[in-house]
Amino acid sequence: MLNGVQFGLMLFLLAAGLTLVFGIMDMINLAHGSLYMIGAYLTATFVGITGVFWLGVLLAVVGTALIGMLLEFSILRQLYRRDHLSQVLATFALILIINEVVRIIWGSQPLLLSAPEGLSGPIEILPGLNYSAFRLTIIGVGLVVAMGLFLLVNNTRVGMWLRAGASNREMAQAMGVPIKPLFTLLFGVGAALCAIAGAFLGPILAVQVGMGESILILAFVVIVIGGIGSVKGALVGALLVGIVDTAGRAFLPLLLSQVASPEVASNLGPALASILIYLLMAVVLFFKPQGLFPART
Amino acid sequence: MSILLEIQGLQTFYGPSQVLFNVNLTIQEGQVATLLGRNGMGKTTTVRSILGLTPARKGLISFAGRRIEALPPEQIAALGIAVVPEGRQIFPNLTVKENLIAFAANRNQSPQPWTLPRIYEIFPRLQERQHNLGNQLSGGEQQMLAIGRALMTNPRLLILDEATEGLAPLLREEIWRVLRLLKQSGQTILVIDKYVERLIALADQHTILERGRVVWQGNSEALGAQPELWKRYLSV
Q: Considering CB atoms only, which of A167, A173, A297 is closest to B74?
C-alpha cells in the first residue's frame, strides 16, 4: 500500500508535466520519459562527483530543467502547429536520439545509484511495522512537490494563465498571456519534475537506457484517467494507478493461489496484474470519457 | 482626435477560401464604431484579424501608430486591445474573481484604471458569485464577466462581438447601460450587434459588411436616414 503511494507520487511528478504540456500546448511529447532518464543519469553522475546525494539531486534537477527548456526552445516549439502524428513521430525520434546520446556518454551498462546512507535502513513507522526510510522520504518529497505545484497552479497568476491556457488557449492568448515564454517555463518545470522522479526512482529501479519508455506509458494512462490538462486529475490518477499496480502485483498471485494451483497462480498473477491498470483506465473512460477531472468542458 | 485603429485593404483567408476582400476601417480615439451585416459576412473574421487570431493575408492594420497585422495575439493584446468574444468564452476552470484578475493590467497608465472594486460596482452580481467557477454562471453573468475581464486589462480599444446575443431583454438593457457608461468615459469601442436602432443611438460611425466586402460606411445620422440599407444588408 505504501509502496503504491510512493510509486504513485513519483508517477504524479511525471504525469503532471506531461498533462500540462499535452493539455495546454496540445502537444504529445513522447520524449517526456527521456527527460526522466536524463534526470536519473545526471543524478547518478552528480552524486558520484559530489558524493552528497541531495546536492547531486539538486544539480540534476537544475540541469534537466535547462535541457528541457533548450529542447523546447530549439525543437519542440516547431511542432506545436503540427498535427499529433507529426508530434509523435518527431518526439519518438527524439527518444531514439537521446537514448543513443546517453549510451555514448554513459555506456550501455546500467548505472548504480544508491540511496543516501542515512536512509538506506528501515525505520519503524508503527509498532511492529518497518518500512524503508528511503521510500518514506520519497513519499515526503512527492507530497511536498505536489503541494508546491498545487500552490503554483491554484494561487499564482502564472497558474491562472496555465489553467486558462489549458481550457482555451486561443482566448488566453487574446487576453495577452505571453504564451511562448510561458511554454518554455512550463517545459522547464516539467523537466525538473521528471528529474526529481528519476532521481528518487533511480535507486529503486535501475538507471538504464530505455527506463523512460516503460514509465511513459504509465504516465499517459495516468493523464488519460485523470483528465488531460488537469493537475488534480494527474494526482488522483497517479495514486490510483500506483496503488492498483503495486497492490495488483503483490496480492493477485496470492489471491489466485486460493482458487487455482500454485503454478497457474504464479504464472497468471503477474500477467493479470499488469493489465489491471488498463482495466482501470477502461472502466474510468466508460463512465467519464473525458477523464475524472477534465480541464476542457 | 487621433486615429487609434486603421485597417487598409484587409484580406483574410480560412485555408484556401477568402473571407475578407479589401476591408477598410478607421476608428478615432474615443469613438464608438460598429460592424454590421448578416451572419457569415465577415464581421467576426475582421475581429479575429485585428486580434491576430486569424492573421491577415494581405493589407495592413495599424494600432496607435504601430503596424500589428503580423504580431502574435498576445502582443496585440499587450498593446491595448481587448475583446469580449462571440460566445463569451469564459474560462470555465477559473473562478469569477480569477477570470477578472488573471489578466489585469494597466499598461497605458490610464489615470482611472478599472479595478476589481470598480468592476464589482458596475456588475454587483459578479461580486456575489466571485468564488464560483466560470462554468457555473448563467449566460447573462458570463457576459458580464466577459466584459469585466476585458475591461480589467484597461484596453485602449474594446471590441464586443455579439455581446447581447442570447440574453433576456432585461440583461440586454444592462449591457447597453454599461456600453453607454463606457462611451461617456471616453472608451474607444468597436461593437458588433444586431440591434441597429440601439447602435445608431450609441455609436458614431458604422460599417456594413456584405460577403467580406465593405458595402457602406457612414455616421449614425446617415444610417438612420436610410432604412432601405437595413433591409438590404441587415434583414431587419
A: A173
Q: What domain range includes position A49?
A: 2-108+131-287
Residue A222 lies in a domain: yes
Please write the tens of the pLDDT for every residue from B94-113.
999 999 999 999 988 888 89
d(CA A235, CA A97): 30
Using the Cβ of A187 and the Cβ atoms of chain B, whether some distance falls under 8 Å is answered with no
Does the beta-carbon distance from A297 to B135 stay under 8 Å?
yes
The residues, ordered by sequence, that sit 6+ positions from B218 with a Cβ below 8 Å of its Cβ are B205, B206
> How many domains does chain B fold into?
1
Strand residues in B94-170 grouped as ranges (E): 157-161
Question: Which residue has better confidence, A190 or A118?
Answer: A190
Extract the C-alpha cell encoding A212: 523512460
Q: Which helix (H) or strand (E) holds A123?
A: strand A122-126
Q: Does B97 touch chain A (CB under 8 A)?
A: no
Closest CA to B178 of B218, B146, B205, B153: B146
C-alpha cell at A285: 473512460
* Inside any domain, residue A124: no
Measured between CB atoms, which of B73, B92, B102 is closest to A297?
B92
B36 touches chain A (CB under 8 A): no
Task: Show the 3-state SS of B167-209.
Answer: CCHHHHHHHHHHHHHHHHCCCEEEEECCCHHHHHHHCCEEEEE
From the list A166, A171, A177, the residue facing B89 with the nearest CB is: A171
Range of the domain at B24: 3-234
Question: Looking at residue A158, which CATH number applies to its domain?
Answer: 1.10.3470
Task: Dig out the grid coordinates for A256 from the structure.
Answer: 489466485
CA distances from B114 to A166, A184, B85, B185 (A): 26, 31, 19, 11
CATH of the domain at B172: 3.40.50.300
Q: Do B51 and A174 touch (CB under 8 A)?
A: yes
Residue A257 lies in a domain: yes
Which residue in the block uniquely carries the three cell numbers 475524472? A292
pLDDT tens-digit series, residues B191-221: 999 999 999 999 999 999 999 999 999 999 9
Asked if the structure places residue A92 within a domain, the reply is yes
Split into its structural domains, chain A has a count of 1
Give the pTM.
Answer: 0.82
